[in-house]
Amino acid sequence: MIKVNKEGQVWVFAEQHLGKIEDTSLELMGRARELANKLGVQVGAVLLGSSVKNAADMLVHYGADTVYMGEHPLLEHYQTSSYSKILYDVIQKYEPQIMLFGATPVGRDLAPHVASAVKAGLTADCTDLQIGRHEIKKTGEVYDNLLFQIRPAFGGNIIATIINYDRWPQMATVREGVMPMPEPDGRRKGGIVEIKVSLSHADLVVEILDEHRRDKTVNLKASRIIVAGGAGVGSRENFRLIWDLANCLGAVPGASRAAVDLGFIDRDHQVGQTGTTVRPSLYIAAGISGAVQHQAGMSDSKKIIAINNDPDAPIFNVAHYKIVGDLNEVIPAMIKAIKEK
Ligand code: FAD
Fold first, then answer.
1. Does the complex come out with an ipTM higher than 0.95?
2. Would you state the torsion angle of the CA atoms of residues 178, 180, 185, 191, taken in this order, to the nearest 10 degrees?
3. Average pLDDT estimate for 20-25
4. Ligand 1 atom index nearest CA of 313
5. Ligand 1 centre and the CA of 335: distance in Å?
């Protein structure tokens, strides 16, 4: 049995903005901890920014044994060239066996640059990560302790497990919201290794003069109840029904991609493979057929109520409560019943 690179740590690129760690990176810390425990190695987090010492402490609370911290005024804003160069150097120096990034706009830009620089592979948009063993049938070689990088493929019709047994580190980006958020432990102790950063304006390809962030109008991930509508709702005007039911329940409106594409609601509300992954206490799906790409983003909800006039709609396969009927009758009846309570 060949045990690969057994000393190397499991690393997470800890993305931050103005010193606040992005949720996706914290979610990844939890899974990195689990993977590292299975491998019997430590967890490392790479943190780059302008003034990020507090964020480094937070990463320790979320499970990092070592934070590799690079501070420099010119690292305040993410830039592909500077960030990927520093990551390349630290990977060469410390040789982690696994390197994980959130599949955020920054992670999706940075990870391929780093993977190409260190000549590793990269699996994008994973929805799960496990440790496993693989035998190469042709040669009979067995590789143990490999990272199984799991993600939907072929338009979401299959779930593929991707492994990489001859290039290091094993690298993946992981979708936002698919890993549960770990509980922080303020008593955890960890080390901080300062990365020496020497940068000048001449090293930067782009000069950022100003930054404007569009605040997300909706936080689907944080809401306990989501009322989602699909193409079956029929029109933007009729989507009022979804908003009304959501308001009654203190919920946030969600949507299928078809509803978004048809202009019924803004893209921030989309749930699914190319939208947000959610796991609320209650998910109500009205006029949504339940395509695999939609289910990929909501099937972990604790309770699912589906309203559909087609008794064979696939959404009923994941629903806990099934209402076969016309949403134009069912939703007003639900609103009336809730108001009368
Ligand atoms: P439809 O499939 O058209 O279903 C409408 C449903 O409404 C039907 O089941 C119908 O019976 C029901 N209905 C109609 N009228 C009524 C009524 N009066 N009362 C009750 N029920 C009624 N989709 C997503 O949602 N999220 C994603 O992130 C996503 N990503 C994708 C990524 C890729 C690469 C691809 C290829 C597709 C993706 N899709 C995604 C699209 C997905 O395949 C489906 O096309 C989409 O989810 C369908 O949306 P829908 O269920 O609203 O519409």
1. yes
2. -30
3. 93
4. 9
5. 24
